[in-house]
Amino acid sequence: MYTREAHPGEHVGHHTSFDVKLANAALLRDEIGIRRPILVDDLVGTTHRAYGSMPNMTWVIGRGGKVLYRADWTSAANVEAFLERHERGRQRRPPSGSVAPYLSEQIEYRDVDREAFYDRLRRNGPRSYDEFKRAEQLWAERR
Amino acid sequence: MDATTYNYATFDGYVDGGHEQREFAAWPDHLHAGELAPDILGTALDDGTEVALSSIWKRRTVVVEFGSFT
Fold this sequence. Notes:
Chain A is mostly helical.
């Protein structure tokens, strides 16, 4: 689901119209080579906000519309492992099996490559990097 | 929320205005596993059709990743 730009810059700017949003989504698809279907949210972020507004979150929704998994950051490995566990459990439900669902919540860790992230900010445009550095100062002042 | 506020033009302005703090603070109490997901629409990038998420989860489990170029 294509959302607002998290770190807009001179090269890839914030959305001033739905056409700009579509063009940026196409740029992502073509530059990264994404083959999965991409849905584009409306200009006011109705879907993004309904699901919590995190910039890189992932949700798994089961048949019937029940939320099965949510994460405020996308880890493909974590999602894949969850889907395998869930499917294995689903196939062992009564009456043929003997499993019961339960809820869990964890805090996970992800690798952070600051320099690679800064390079991606510069790809968005120089001011994207400058604005992030300014935000880092604001976060430091809050602590 | 209007389009201008949602599509902030500058990231430091978004942080300085407290929007990022409010959104991250709201996340822990937002929609959880076991609850019904909101059904919403998105425009398919490839052909411009409007797609309801429910039309996908009626048929199979769906993984929805949110993100943008930047």
